[in-house]
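Intended use. Records like the one below are meant for learning the mapping from a protein sequence to its folded structure. Do not use them to infer anything beyond what is encoded.
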Amino acid sequence: MPEQPLTSRTFPKELLEGAVAALADPFMLLALPAPDRGPGQEAPQVLYANAAAEGLVGAVHGSPVHTAVRRVLATGTAERLRWVRASGDDATVLDVRVTRVDAATASVVCREAAEVIPGLLVDAYRIADGAWGTLSSVLDAAPDAFLVLEVGALDESGPQPQRAVLRHYNRAAGSLVGVHEHDVGRPVHETLDATWARRLTDALARAGSAPVRYRSRAWDDDGLWSAAYDVTVVVADPVVGRVVVVLHDATDDERSHRRLEDERFLAERRASYDDLTGLLNRRTLHDHLRRTLAATGPGRRVAVLFADLDGFKAVNDGYGHAAGDRLLAAVADRLGRAARVGDVAGRYGGDEFVVVMPDVPADWSPEATLARLARTLSEPVWVEGAVLTPSATLGAYLADPCARPGDRDPLGVIAAADRVMYRLKAARADGAGLPGDARRA
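Structure written out for the chain above:
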């Protein structure tokens, strides 16, 4: 017949009792319900208890197990709990350790908490002190500035900046904000300069139940930004009003962002404007004219003026391309200044310019406008030590996109104005016209 396994239920009782009786702490060995029994069919009972356990909690062989211990046993893991045992007017707080031994038994060791608490406090202090030392080292190594402030208990009105007191700061905050060790415990408005006090006041005014992050910029006397900071505000403890403010120097980020914005703006401008004259380039002029024609209603017209400089090749040949460029820039500037509000001028080719005049009446006549532009363009220009008197041939075409479907095409409309200009140029070459003369198409 096989030998029966040795368990706590078959272990010689006298040996076990001798072992546990020698323990100074109260000790119990519990008998657990059989695994095949349902819950509540058999409660755990005391299998063995030493004298200390019997005197402290009244545990004897076969007595039921305290409810608090049952809850621990249900988890099946070792746990530690506080067990308050009342006796008359006195109450004893026990430090209890419960450990499952096997499926059938569990052990319980009790100690009065009065013996344990001092040691626990010492351990807790050492742990907290070590954790704070580690945290302080980490914060001092951080590149961002950390400030811990106390502003008093928070109510619906939020933090009170005037009550803010500095409780802690890291090394970066000392360098950035200018606080020192002797400033800890003092009101913020007494320790910081006016600029930083104002920034922290603004930060505290934004504090709420959720962390807040925003960008604060510093401005110089000329109204230009000189530095930028990302400010994060976290309410760590609303009861005492403890607020953590994190300051990240975002100056380099801001410069990079603005440089990218400037580059994007310049790229968009280069794509839309002529580099030499600053007027719209051909592609953008086509897009603008297309939108203008589409937006023109019945009874209104779009005037398109086409200007071609006379004798421009002679200027390049006689004075050089730099002089020619200056002449083109001067002509473009005059076109832009002479245009009405809402008119748009563009450089269409080498020495060709186009002006789009939206929303003109059906009976509008271009002669006066063309004559005025011709006079404006013919004013002298000083270039490369010489005085040049430019002239231009201008033609006009009145587009009626509602009445003529062909006038809805910007290319066709500009080509029509171009044909008018060339007829006038040819007539001038024959001595039949004057600068600035125009005809309707």
